[in-house]
């Protein structure tokens, strides 16, 4: 619910008619064409209004209830999957510009490109009695909107497709079934040492609390498996955790969740933030005999399950994961493990694993 007052003060006698108050949500996307021409697309996805008869100056209250879902006519273009329309009619968050939670060291939303803006505002227009005259007065006030969880409308369980080969039906899954693998070799003769497999197990949505001025903490399991040829396992040093925010945007509505398949009519802006470093020198490996017919050289299999802990600060410019008709935001968690094998004394090697991360907001 958004409520307030419109105050009207005049010095001269004027003839009044109606005071029209509107709450609008507008998405603006600007892109540079390859020939240098600047193109811009504007979509009004929400418009609520109320009209009041004005007989004299004074203070006039207003109240609007912002819905958790947009009207169906706000997404009338062709979509490749019903889940896409479900996502496109969810209320998008304010995006771009200065956020109310910005601090002196973080005044702007560094995760959003300047080409994208999602703005909500209150507009008040005082209309003259004569319909052929221009309105005598108009004012505007921007408001900041962050959608929170709704039991009637849970967040859609899918993330953007990362390549043109992804089928729309695959967008309905929030799974990451591709662990990272690295072949370990040593010295100039590239002697095979073994194979390291790193996998971040699936985590549920990460919920940030709007009214709690403390970090949002989370822990997810990282599973490491090492198939050794020599009977020794790597020495683990540390791991770093980063969150990568991708903002997808285009000049025309997208039929899919991915905005990367429209070439010149769309773009993606990616920004990574380092959020944690964790020591792994005390990690314990568990060894089990590994007898396989496919690879008889593998002698031992080592496994380690590492809890990866991180926190998101409340003054960071995060918004909930969303996918609208022309703008979308998704997140990925990137975990880099640094290790050494054998008697190596040079720089440690690393293996990087990514995991889709859904961020939601709660007002509790």
Automatic annotation (TrEMBL):
Region annotation Disordered: where it falls in the sequence: 154-177
Listed InterPro entries: Bul1-like
UniProt biased composition (Basic and acidic residues): 163-177
PANTHER family: BYPASS OF STOP CODON PROTEIN 5-RELATED
Name of the molecule in the record: Bul1 C-terminal domain-containing protein
Organism: Aspergillus kawachii (White koji mold)
